[in-house]
Design goal:
Chain B: InterPro entries: Alpha-ketoacid_DH_E1_comp (IPR050771), DH_E1 (IPR001017), PdhA/BkdA (IPR017596), THDP-binding (IPR029061). Chain A is about 35% helix and about 20% strand. By secondary structure, chain A is α/β, with parallel strands linked by helices. In chain A, the strands form 3 sheets. Chain A has a 7-stranded mixed β-sheet with strand order 3-2-4-5-7-6-12, with helices on both faces. A 5-stranded mixed β-sheet of chain A has the order 9-11-10-13-14, with helices on both faces. In chain A, helix 7 links the parallel strand 6 (about 145) and strand 7 (about 170-175). Chain B has 12 helices and 8 strands. Chain B has a 6-stranded parallel β-sheet, sandwiched between helices. In chain B, strands 5-6 form a two-stranded antiparallel sheet. The longest helix of chain B has 26 residues, at about 30-55. The chains are: A alpha/beta, B alpha/beta.
Chain lengths: ~325, ~350
């Protein structure tokens, strides 16, 4: 066991993936000498060389487009998009090419490309550095979309994403990069498409992923003091969703609140609410509620604490879900 | 052989009248058999295209993007490739597909709507058609970076049009290729028209001159001259394989047909322009050359024409026999690994369809 930050756990996971397979490449802006703006790729270029850890020109579409070409040649590129708000120049390559080319080839082509995206707010950043664009990608068939929430998962999920023969959009909760946990090197994790029960609970189920898992766990601990048993599901995989785990939990509690940073409207929470309603209809004591961002652009950082779901907003929703 | 007559910026080895001319930097030494073979390619490719247009007009294809007029650019560059080189086409490279050995039926399948491509890109080192303009330029550069990492003796060639040069992806591909010295040949078929927009809407300077700003050579070649296209592409590919980096080849040609079968060029261009370009036809000049130099007789030309007719007839029959895919094929190959959501939807859809079995 080694105590690692989430950023370092990703770094160790990438290192293990590169050790295991010489076809694994890391590419992106500033991933080489600098080690990435969040240091996730720290030291990799020194150890694996400039041919395997590639500092690219500053153009996101180019990063993904050339990664596709490298994958066509048999490589397994792991691309870093520096910030969530900068993925959009690459959206065309991700949506029209990366997601669809294997189908276009009737399976002759596999594109094992990982697109790493630091996501979410809470770090006092300027515009375009705090966004949660996951729904754009969960809506695109052909992509797998995952989000890690803690160092232990980060370490195994990044390795599983690299091993996966499908393209994977990999969200990293940037405000949790410095959270620490004990990580066991070489230990396997849950399969990449599985959700995790982060906390058992009998009265209400919170469903979250990425940065909101920790916030939900804190809310659950606070609710316990009020005598409520709140469970937390960490989805880990956003496409596909691991509905059996969610269904089992909600069937037990009869109440469900979905929490994410992204705007509620047209967000992933709507999909989860619909599925929970379909699958747990006779066990539900209340409608599925959602807590998330407003239907506004991400606000200036002095206002972000009001925009981001926090303990109180989650607990307020928990209260409401008991009001039915 | 006569002295150069073409404008100096245009590499030309065979005039529209079928005269061989010299160029100080590029030349080519072809046997009579090789010239006859190129002629055969040009004629058969045009015949495939003609048959496909007819199939679309008869409702057997949803759409077709004709290559009429661009046969020399495609056959010349396509025949410059080695087996190890990888070609990245747009959706109009039927002539390159032919040179790579891809069954034209596969191309028809896409436009008929039985699949979105479907041939094995690795079987003939001919990538799938890309419909989004310019996207494939980045794929070709990435692939070329893979060739570099493999230490292989190969290059990529990527096709795109004059309109595509305005796309961000194409410009990013130029930058990437230049910075990484990637073994790639950018083969731009400037056919003068991006649907209805003439070249002036895309560029204030000749396209080949763009390359110098990115730090690699650009060459303009007579795109209707199969000899020149072969010679220039061969040299560019050799340079790429030998580590000298990318080249932009601008094949100056003309889209003699519509953009696609859905297009109506009479709305935006004058008939005289087409008539002028007909005099520069890529096939006629090779025929004139073969005839003048007594490298082929009428019997040869008749034989090629008969082969073309057979090819068209056979292609038509096989196109009409293409089965529609089974409904469940919607779910195939979306993911390489098992995917719970897709499995669930496939099962629901299968059950739904089964509900109609036996119904009147």
């Amino acid at each position: 066991m080694t105590t690692l930050t989430l950023a370092k756990a990703l770094n160790e996971g990438l290192r293990a993936a590169m050790d295991a397979d010489s076809k694994v490449l890391v590419m992106g802006e500033d991933v080489g000498k600098l080690g990435g703006v969040f240091r996730v790729t720290d030291g990799l270029q020194k150890d694996f060389g400039e041919d395997r850890v590639i500092d690219t020109p500053l153009a996101e579409s180019g990063i993904i487009g050339t990664a596709i070409g490298l994958a066509l040649r048999g490589y397994r590129p792991v691309c870093e998009i520096q910030f969530d708000g900068f993925v959009f120049p690459a959206a065309d390559q991700i949506i029209t090419q990366l997601a669809k080319m294997p189908l276009r080839s009737l399976g002759k082509i596999k594109l094992p490309v990982v697109v790493r995206i630091p996501c979410g707010g809470g770090i006092g950043a300027v515009e375009h550095h705090s966004e949660s664009p996951e729904s754009y990608f969960t809506h695109t068939a052909g992509l797998r979309v995952v989000a890690c929430s803690n160092p232990v998962d980060a370490y195994t999920m990044i390795q599983d994403a690299v091993r996966c023969d499908d393209p994977v959009v990999f969200f990293e909760p940037k405000r949790r990069y410095w959270d620490k946990a004990d990580v066991e090197f070489g230990a396997p994790g849950l399969p990449l498409d599985r959700a995790r029960v982060a906390r058992e609970g009998d009265d209400v189920t919170l469903v979250a992923y990425g940065p909101m898992v920790k916030t939900c766990l804190e809310a659950a601990a606070a609710a316990e003091e009020d005598g409520r048993s709140v469970g937390v599901i960490d989805l880990r995989s956003l496409n596909p969703l691991d509905m059996p785990v969610v269904r089992d939990a909600v069937n037990r509690t009869g109440r469900c609140v979905v929490v994410h940073e992204a705007p509620v409207f047209s967000g992933l929470g709507g999909e989860i609410a619909a599925r929970v309603t379909e699958q747990c209809f006779y066990r539900l004591e209340a409608p599925v509620l959602r807590v998330g961002g407003f239907s506004t652009p991400y606000p200036p950082s002095r206002l972000e604490d009001h925009y981001l779901p926090d303990l109180d907003r989650i607990l307020e929703a928990v209260d409401r879900v008991f009001g039915y | 052989m006569t002295a150069p007559t073409a404008p100096p910026e245009l590499v030309q080895l065979l005039t529209p009248e079928g005269e061989r001319i010299e160029h100080p930097d590029y030349d080519i030494d072809l046997t009579a058999e090789e010239v006859r073979s190129l002629y055969r390619d040009l004629v058969l490719v045009r015949r495939v295209d003609l048959e496909a247009v007819a199939l679309q007009r008869q409702g057997e294809l949803g759409l077709w993007a004709s290559l009429l007029g661009q046969e020399a650019a495609q056959v010349g560059s396509g025949r410059a490739l080695t087996d190890a080189d990888m070609a990245f086409p747009t959706y109009r490279e039927h002539g390159v597909a032919w040179c790579r050995g891809v069954d034209p039926l596969h191309l028809l399948g896409l436009f008929r709507g039985v699949n979105h491509g479907g041939w094995d890109p690795y079987e003939h080192n001919f990538h799938l058609y890309t419909i989004v303009i310019g996207s494939q330029t980045l794929h070709s550069v990435g692939y070329a970076m893979g060739i570099q990492r493999d230490g292989a003796e190969a290059a990529t060639i990527v096709y795109f049009g004059d309109g595509a040069t305005s796309q961000g992806d194409v410009n990013e591909a130029f930058i990437w290729a230049s910075v990484f010295n990637a073994p790639v040949v950018f083969f731009c078929q400037n056919n003068q028209w991006a649907i209805s927009e003439p070249l002036e809407k895309q560029s204030k300077i000749p396209l080949y001159k763009r390359a110098s700003g990115f730090g690699f050579p650009g060459i303009r070649v007579d795109g209707n001259d199969v000899f020149a296209c072969l010679a220039v592409t061969r040299a560019a590919l050799r340079n790429a394989r030998e580590g000298q980096g990318p080249t932009l080849v601008e094949a100056f040609t003309y889209r003699m047909g519509a953009h696609t079968t859905s297009d109506d060029p009479t709305r935006y261009r004058v008939a005289d322009e087409l008539e002028a370009w007909k005099l520069k036809d890529p096939i006629e000049r090779v025929k004139a050359y073969l005839f003048k130099n007594q490298l082929a007789d009428q019997e040869f030309f008749d034989k090629i024409d008969a082969e073309a007719d057979l090819l068209g007839k056979d292609l038509r029959a096989r196109c009409l026999a293409l089965p529609d895919p089974q409904p469940g094929a919607i779910f195939d190959h979306v993911y390489a690994e098992p995917h719970a959501l897709l499995a669930e939807e496939r099962e629901q859809f299968t059950t739904y369809l089964a509900g109609f079995e036996g119904a009147q």
